[in-house]
Amino acid sequence: MGLFGPPDVEKARQTGRIELMLEAANYKKDPAVAAAGREALAEHLDLLIEELQTRNIRRLRIAREALVAIGPRARDRLIFILREGHVHRRQDAAFVLGEIGDETAVQPLCDSLKHTDPLLRALAAEALGKIGSRKALRALRLAALDDDPGVTKAVRKALAKIPGGAPGPSL
């Protein structure tokens, strides 16, 4: 952010500094600056998707936050990764899709509740809870029978967030 004003999106673009673009995208005082920041981030969508592979926690966090800021424009790429990517990238895609909160991701996330990786199943359940769509109720209720306690805990939390989804006595 500028010392005495909004983040300089043009400077962020020229230098390629994702953190500055993200700062602009999250700037609450001026919607035009925030929109310009999101647009600048969207120009780096491929790079941000690649960053989901990094082991550097700081870079991974920034990539996740930037993808959330981009929002629906990143959704289709994230859904593709959720369906086809390496398991660790799928986990990150599930997390980010939950943060974006776009109902288009509900079915792919429901499908991920059947994956062999328990962390992916738990992240998919958490994402579905954040999205809050009743379309996920059936898949979540089936996932409540999962053998992994981390998954069942995530499923219960997700069900509690969705209207009409509070787990019954059988869960």
Explain how this protein is built.
The mean pLDDT is 93. The protein is elongated. The chain has helices at 9-15, 18-25, 31-42, 45-51, 57-70, 72-84, 87-100, 106-112, 118-131, 137-143, 149-161. It has a domain at 75-161: Leucine-rich Repeat Variant, CATH 1.25.10.10. Helix 7 runs parallel beside helix 9 (118-131) and helix 9 (118-131) runs parallel beside helix 11. It is mainly α.
Layout: helices, strands, pairs:
Blueprint: H1 9-15, H2 18-25, H3 31-42, H4 45-51, H5 57-70, H6 72-84, H7 87-100, H8 106-112, H9 118-131, H10 137-143, H11 149-161
Helix pairs in contact: 1-2, 2-3, 2-5, 3-5, 4-5, 5-7, 6-7, 7-9, 8-9, 9-11, 10-11
Key structural traits:
Leucine-rich Repeat Variant; elongated; 11 helices; about 70% helix; about 170 residues; about 0% strand; mainly alpha; single chain
Please give a quick description of this structure.
This protein has helices spanning 9-15, 18-25, 31-42, 45-51, 57-70, 72-84, 87-100, 106-112, 118-131, 137-143, 149-161. The chain starts with 8 loop residues before the first helix and ends in a 10-residue tail after the last helix. It is built from 11 helices and no strands.
